[in-house]
Every structure is written in structure tokens, then in C-alpha cells.
User: Which sequence fits this backbone?
């Protein structure tokens, strides 16, 4: 039936992660460091309010934009935590996870022929969403020597007058890199100079260590140029609830709401009620999770460096991205051989873009015991490879 | 006031006092020397008063009975409740002792082998003390949560995909 598939779908390459997932799924007793979601269960107070909303019979559609109470709470939250000012009436749209928000941004602003500038490596969805919206992608390579921060020189190198949208995804999946104010200011000049829009995927903004996240939208003059995307999945361990949001200029939000109302109608109501509770009562639970991630992050970075591998210190998200090129293996070879020999699953860096070559992504959303066991196994694998 | 890094360190020790200074150092970024000195100071200052595992005795099959006793006490001039509390805390049967606001004064947690043991202790040692006006004994029937640890039911198992973006 392949001939029925639209060409742009048939030719869309499958996710590199999917390929690896299929391989891991065939094996038993695997310790996986391949998961991109928290290992915590949603804090009880949040779960309880979801249950309560069901008991109250809250099982209907909400308005397309999402419950006003949630948008209002979000508006306060963004102002308090990230110095962002969004009107809950016209500037915030609640979506089914941040993934839908990314898709909406792309579909609302892109036309065939447009080019999207996407950091490389980065989360797997940006390029496919851009392609499905009829646009094409120019990757902006980032390097370990720059702590995987995006540099204007690289942006200028890949820039084309057809570029319309720049994706900024910091803290970054898979590298764990962050961009502070000094790093972002030259990017803001670049964006103004070339009259670009920015999709700021700030989904990991709460998961930073020793640093406070600076949102691109909070820089002078950047609010109207930025579509701020985030959600509850990572900060509050709420991946399965599917609640995200996008905030930005009312004209753009209105355009996205049009697509959202025809294709999604609204985000799940139970998740929206739970999200309100998360913002009101789960700050301490969130901070405790961040503290736990920080311990594990330090453990993994220390572990990889002990093995003799270069491992840049990630200051955000919950991934480390060590350089494995000393072993003489490519990312894919390393991941496949490690899986077969030691039954540890990690994701090859190339699953996130060509600049991920020479690296593997290891998630530390696991218990200390699992991480320690995984490190032990990876260490003996690396030792064997370095001694050849 | 505790600094943020000291608070993190102390919380870690409270969660798992088996962690060695070397492990604490890796997980916090503080030096081993600093950690050893802080622990030593806290022990001297009685901030850290002991290192005990949390044991769910109900699962051991050993006989053990606990009771919470509400005690009304006549405060003593110049001492308030401290004098009687000092005396009570010496009893090894008393596992916890609090001064309370509300309808009674002291809350006493007692552990014994049998209900008889506990009843005898209350009658002979506690109720008969001078200044004690009355006692009300509540036996613990089942422990559901202790020191922040849920004791009942299975642990929530995560059903995550093995690899996800």
C-alpha cells in the first residue's frame, strides 16, 4: 500500500531513535540509559487533582485555547520565574504536549521554500515537522569545544535569505548544553538583522544546575519574534498527561489556534486540571527532583571521565553526552556493540543530527543503583576497546 | 542558617547515611575534606545525633506493640514541662516525647513486647508520676507510613519505553 502514501511522508526518514528502540526491544535484562523522560511518578498532589477532576465529572472539551484558569496561572508563573509577560487572553495556547506546539509553530508560519535553522545535534522532531510543513532545514552545527552552545559564526555560515525560523532548544536534548544571556545576545542581533522568527523550545528550562535559565523571549525586543514553547512533562514528571503550551504574539497564537481547533480541538481536560495544581503546589516536589538529577549528573560525568573519555559538563536537561571517539568506534557501532556485549542501551549521538557523531546520549533519569551498574558495565566495555 | 550546599549535603546524609564522603563528594561537587569537616562539626554540635536504618519491625515477625499516650501534666513553677520531660526521656521504653499544643500536654510514644508491658508501664511509671494529672493510651494497630517512608503496598513500577527521544 506504500504507493498510497504521500511522497513527502514516504520519503521522510524514520527516527534514528526508533531504529535503536527496535533493536533494544528484542533483548532481555537490558539496563537502558536511553529514556528521554523522568523516572519519577507525577507528584501525588498533582495526580490527586487529576483524580478529583474526574470525580467532579470534568470530562468535557475545554475551550480551544485551554482552561482560562490554567492560562492565567501560567501567565503568573512565566512572569515570576522567567521574567516573561504574556496575556492569558490572547497570548497563550494550551496544547497536547510541547510536541504539538512545535508542530503548530511550524505549520502556522512555514511555506514551501522556507528554510528552518535547526541546532545540530538537537531533539528529533524539529526537522521532520519543518519538512511536513513544506519547508527545508539547514543544520547549525554546535561543538563540544563551545560546550555545544550555538555560535553566530556558524549561524551566518548556514544562513540563507530563505530562512524564516530559527529553532533554539536550550537546555538541549541530547547534549545538556545551556545558553546564558551572553550567549543569547549575539543570536538576538542575528535574528533582528535577518528578520527571523524564533521557536524557543524551553521544555527543560526548570532543569538547570548551578545556573538559572534565561529565556530568549525575555531579551530586549525579542518577545514578538519568539514563539515560546514549553510544557509540564519534564519539570513535573507529567509526560503521559500530554500538556504543553505555546506563548507569543496574539496574531501568531491566533493562527496556531486555528490549526489546533481543527486538528486537536483541545488538550486533555484532566491534564489541564492537573497542570493547574502542578503550578500551584508542586514547586517543592519539582525542586527535589532537580536536586536528585543533579546528584546523578555529577555521578555520570565523573564516571565517564574516570574511564578516560572526554565528557563535557552538561548544565541542563537530564542527559550527558560523552565523546566516545577515543574507542575508535562510530556512535552507532559503540551503541550497538555496548548493547550486545554489556546489555546497556544508550542512544547514538547521530540520532540527533550529524554533529552527534563521536558521542552517545546517556539519560540520568534513572536510580543511583541503575546508573552505578550501567557505569560499571560501560567502563569494562570502554576498557576493552581502549586496550585493543 | 544553613547554606544551600550544606542543606543539600545534610539532606543527602538524612536520606542515606551509608554514603561515604568520597561518594558524597562526587554527587555534590564538594571536596572530601569539606564534607568530612562538616560532618564532624555537625556531630559535635548535635545537629547529627545518630545514624539509624529505618526498620519495619512489623515484617520481622517479632512481637512489638506501640502506643501513643496523651499525658496531661501540671506545669511546675520555674520549670514548666521541662523537668518532667527530662525525667521521662530517660526511660528506654519511651521512643518519642513531644510537648503539644491543644487538649493535652505531652505526647509519649511507647514500645513494648506486649500490650501488657505497655499498660504496666503507663500505670506504674507514667500515671503515677507526681504532676501527671491524667493519661489516655492509644494503641497503634497498623503502621502505614513511618519517617516519610510508605510501608503499605507495592512500589509504583514505571512502565517506561526502553528508548525514547
Assistant:
Amino acid at each position: 500500500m506504500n504507493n498510497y502514501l504521500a511522497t513527502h511522508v514516504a520519503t521522510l526518514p524514520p527516527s534514528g531513535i526508533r531504529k535503536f528502540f527496535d533493536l533494544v526491544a528484542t533483548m532481555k535484562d537490558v539496563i537502558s540509559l536511553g529514556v528521554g523522560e523522568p523516572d519519577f511518578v507525577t507528584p501525588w498532589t498533582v495526580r490527586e487533582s487529576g483524580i478529583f477532576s474526574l470525580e467532579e465529572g470534568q470530562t468535557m472539551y475545554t475551550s480551544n485555547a485551554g482552561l482560562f484558569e490554567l492560562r492565567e496561572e501560567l501567565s503568573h508563573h512565566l512572569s515570576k520565574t522567567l521574567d516573561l509577560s504574556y496575556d492569558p487572553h490572547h497570548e497563550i495556547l494550551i496544547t497536547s504536549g510541547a510536541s504539538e506546539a512545535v508542530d503548530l509553530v511550524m505549520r502556522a508560519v512555514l511555506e514551501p521554500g522556507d528554510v528552518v535553522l535547526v541546532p545540530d545535534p538537537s531533539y528529533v522532531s524539529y526537522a521532520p515537522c519543518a519538512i511536513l510543513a513544506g519547508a527545508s532545514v539547514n543544520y547549525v552545527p554546535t561543538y563540544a569545544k563551545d560546550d555545544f552552545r550555538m555560535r553566530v559564526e556558524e549561524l551566518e555560515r548556514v544562513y540563507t535569505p530563505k530562512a524564516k525560523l530559527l529553532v533554539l532548544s536550550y537546555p538541549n536534548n541530547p547534549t545538556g548544553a545551556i545558553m546564558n544571556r551572553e550567549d543569547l545576545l549575539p543570536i538576538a542581533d542575528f535574528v533582528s538583522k535577518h528578520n527571523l522568527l524564533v521557536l524557543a523550545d524551553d521544555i527543560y528550562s526548570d532543569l538547570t544546575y548551578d545556573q538559572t535559565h534565561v529565556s530568549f523571549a525575555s531579551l530586549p525586543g525579542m518577545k514578538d519574534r519568539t514563539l515560546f514553547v514549553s510544557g509540564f512533562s519534564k519539570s513535573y514528571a507529567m509526560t503521559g498527561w500530554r500538556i504543553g503550551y505555546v506563548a507569543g504574539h496574539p496574531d501568531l497564537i491566533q493562527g496556531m489556534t486555528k490549526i489546533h481547533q481543527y486538528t486537536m480541538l483541545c488538550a486533555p481536560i484532566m491534564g489541564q486540571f492537573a497542570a493547574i495544581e502542578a503550578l500551584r503546589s508542586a514547586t517543592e516536589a519539582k525542586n527535589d527532583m532537580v536536586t536528585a538529577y543533579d546528584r546523578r549528573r555529577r555521578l555520570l560525568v565523573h564516571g565517564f571521565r574516570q574511564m578516560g573519555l572526554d565528557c563535557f559538563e552538561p548544565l541542563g536537561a537530564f542527559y550527558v553526552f560523552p565523546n566516545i571517539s577515543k574507542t575508535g568506534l562510530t556512535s552507532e557501532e559503540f551503541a550497538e556493540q555496548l548493547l550486545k556485549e554489556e546489555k546497556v542501551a544508550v542512544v547514538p549521538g547521530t540520532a540527533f543530527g550529524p554533529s552527534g557523531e563521536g558521542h552517545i546520549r546517556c539519560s540520568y533519569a534513572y536510580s543511583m543503583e541503575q546508573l552505578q551498574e550501567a557505569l560499571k558495565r560501560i567502563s569494562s566495555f570502554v576498557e576493552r576497546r581502549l586496550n585493543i | 542558617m544553613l547554606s544551600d550546599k550544606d542543606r543539600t549535603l545534610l539532606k543527602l546524609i538524612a536520606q542515606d547515611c551509608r554514603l561515604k564522603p568520597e561518594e558524597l563528594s562526587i554527587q555534590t561537587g564538594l571536596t572530601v575534606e569539606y564534607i568530612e569537616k562538616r560532618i564532624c562539626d555537625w556531630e559535635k554540635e548535635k545537629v547529627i545525633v545518630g545514624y539509624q536504618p529505618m526498620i519495619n519491625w512489623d515484617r520481622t515477625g517479632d512481637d512489638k506493640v506501640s502506643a501513643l499516650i496523651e499525658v496531661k501534666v501540671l506545669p511546675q513553677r520555674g520549670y514548666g514541662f521541662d523537668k518532667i520531660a527530662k525525667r521521662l526521656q530517660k526511660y528506654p521504653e519511651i521512643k518519642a516525647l513531644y510537648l503539644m499544643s491543644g487538649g493535652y500536654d505531652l505526647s509519649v510514644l511507647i514500645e513494648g513486647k506486649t500490650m501488657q508491658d505497655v499498660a504496666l508501664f503507663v500505670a506504674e511509671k507514667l500515671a503515677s508520676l507526681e504532676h501527671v494529672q491524667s493519661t489516655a493510651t492509644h494503641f497503634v494497630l497498623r503502621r502505614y507510613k513511618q519517617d516519610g517512608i510508605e510501608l503499605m503496598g507495592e512500589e509504583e513500577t514505571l512502565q517506561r519505553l526502553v528508548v525514547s527521544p
